[in-house]
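Internal QA ticket QA-208
Title: Verify multi-chain structure generation after dependency bump
Assignee: T.L.

Test input:
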Amino acid sequence: MIGRHSLELALPGASIGAAAGAMAGGLTLLAGQPTGMAALSALALSVPLGLFGGLYGVLLGHGVFRPGTFGPVGLFWMVAFPVSRLVQESLAGVGMADGVLPFLAYQAMVALGFAIGFVWLHERLMPHWLMRRAGANPEAKALLGQYIKHAQALQATRKGSRR
Amino acid sequence: MDTSNTPPAAQTAPPAEDERVWKAGRLEPMPIRKLPDAPPSVHILGPTVFLVALGVGMGESYMWPRLVLLFGPEIRWLFLIGVSLQAVVMLEMARYAMATGESIFSGAARVFKPLMWFFFIVAIAVYIWPGHLSAGAAAFEEISGIPWVVTAVAGLILVGVIFSLAKVIYNVLENVLSLLIGALVLGTAVVAAMVGTWNDVVTTITGMFSFGYLPPEAMTAAWFPVIVGACAFAGPSGMQQMWYTLHLRDSGAGMGAHMPKVRGLRHAGEQEEMPARGFMFDTDNPAEMAKWRGWRRWVTFDALLLFWGITMLVTISFTVIAQSAVRQNPGVRDVIAGDDQEVALTAMADAVSSAGSSVLGVVFLGFIALIGLNATLGLFDSFSRGQADMTYNFVPGAKKVRMSHLYAIFLWGVIIFGILILLLGPADGPSGILDTLAFLSTFAMGAYCVTLLLVNNRMLPKPIRPKWWTNMIIGFGAVFYLGMLFYSLFAYGVVVG
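Actual output:
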C-alpha cells in the first residue's frame, strides 16, 4: 500500500510527465481537429506519463533507483514511454501507419531521449521539493538525506584544500 | 621554453607541500597542492550543461536537418565525425583545466603568449556580433509578431541584468540553462515521438555510417562552404570548447577547486583575489594519480552521455521532424535549398505545421527561439569570462581591478555593442552575420586543436599527458577543420558560404 508520504515523493516526477504530455495537446489543437479531440489527445498522454513519472519518484523513495543515475531510468522509460504513447494512440490517435511493433520500437528509441530530459529536470526539482516536505514527511527526509550526502561528497571535492 | 624535462615536482627543502612547484613555460610556476577526491563518475549535472547549451544550436536544429533534406541522410557521416571529434576535444580541454585549475588560454600563454592574444582577438572579432541572438529572435517574431530587433535588444539587456545581479554567476547560469535544456530535450522527444516513424530513425542513423559519401552537388562553390560551416557547427563551435575550461574551473572540477569563483557585479566586493596561476598535483604519488583517474572517468561520462548523447538526440529529433515535414509537402525541399535562413526556417516550420498541426510549427519555432536564448546566455557569459580571464592574467596592471569588474566590463561592452549593431548596423538580416561567424569559427577550431596538442604535451607532467592515439585524433581535428576551410577557399574561392 502506497501511503501519503510516498505519494508526496511522486509529485515532481508526475508534474514533469504530465507537462510533457500536455504538449501533445498543443500539437493536435489546431490540426483541424476539434478542441475536444485535442484535449483528449493531451489527456491520453499526460495521464500515463504523469503516472509513470510519479511512479519513478515513489521508487526513488523506496531505494529502487539511486538519485542522479541514468542507466536504470533509461530502461524504465524505454518501457513506460512506449506504453504511454500506445495508450494515447489507442484512445486518441490517427492509427499507427507502420504497425504496432515498429511503432513501439521507434517509441522506445525516442524514450531514451525523453529519459535524459526527465532525469535532468527531475534532479533539478526534486531536492527543492524534498526540502519543503522533509519536516512533515519521514520518507522525504530520508531521501533528502541521500541527496545531501551526494551533495556533500561533491562539496568536499570543491572545498578540497583551498589555498 | 620546453619544459618537458623539468622534474614534475622539484623537491626543495622540507616536506611542506607549499614549497614544491611545477614549472610550465616561462610563466609563474604552479605550486603543488592536493587533488580533491573525484565525485562519482555517474552523475547527471555538471559544467557540461554549458557545453550542451552552447553546442545544441543552429547546427543541430537547422543546418544539419537542412543538409539531410538536400543531400539525403547519408551526408550525416560528417556530423558523426564532427560531434565525436568534439567529444575528444572536450576531454582534452578538460585534461589541462582539471590538472591545473587554469583556463586553456593560460595554457596557451605558457606555450607562447602571442598564441593567447590570437584567441583574445579572434574572440572579439567573432563573438561581438549579435548574430546568434538574431536567429532565435527571428523565430520568435514568427510566433508572436514582435519585431525581432525588439526581442533581441530586450534579450540582451535581460542577460546583462541577470548576470550583474547574480551572487555567483556560475550557479545561476547552471540552474537556468539546466531547466531550459531539460525542457528542450523533453519537448523534442515528445514532438519526434508524435511525428516520426521507425523508418526515419533508421535512415537517419544508418546515414551516419555512410563514410565518404559526398554527392556531386555537394562539391560545388554553392554548397561546399555550407557543408564546411555545418561541420564546424556540429556540437560546440568556435571557441566554445575553450570557454568550457573556464566553467570547469568555476565548477571546482579537479584543481579548479583551489580557485575562487567569479561573482556578479552587485556582489563583486565579496570576490576573493584570483591567483595569477593555477596549481599542480603530485603526479608521482599513486594515491593522487588514482584520484586523477577518478576525475577522468567523471569527465568521460560527461563527454559521452551528456554531451555526445544529447547533441545526437536533438539532431536526430530535428532531422526526423524535417523528414516527416518533407514527406507531407515535397515542395518544401526547394524552399529549404534557398539561401535565406529565415525563409528556410519558416518553410520548415510551415511544413512541420502541415505534418502535424499549425501549433506544431509554432512549437518548432519556439524551440529555435529557446535554442537562441540558451546560446545567448551561454555565449555572453563565456565570452566575458574568457576575455576577463585573459585580461586579468596578462594585461599589466589589470590585477588592480577585480575579476568580477572585468567580467562586467566585457559583458556590458558586448551588450552595448550588440544593441548598437542591432539598431544601426548593417541591417541585412541575421543570416549574413551567422555565415561569417561559421567561417571564422572553423579557423579558431583548427587553431585550438594545435594549441591543445602543444599545451597538453608540453605543459603537463609526463604521467598525465595524453596518449598517442588521443594526439592522433586531435591532430586529425586540426587537419579536418583547417583542411576543409582552405580547400573551400582555394578550390572554390569562396570564403563565406
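Spot checks passed. Strands of chain B lie at 21-22, 30-31.
Status: verified.
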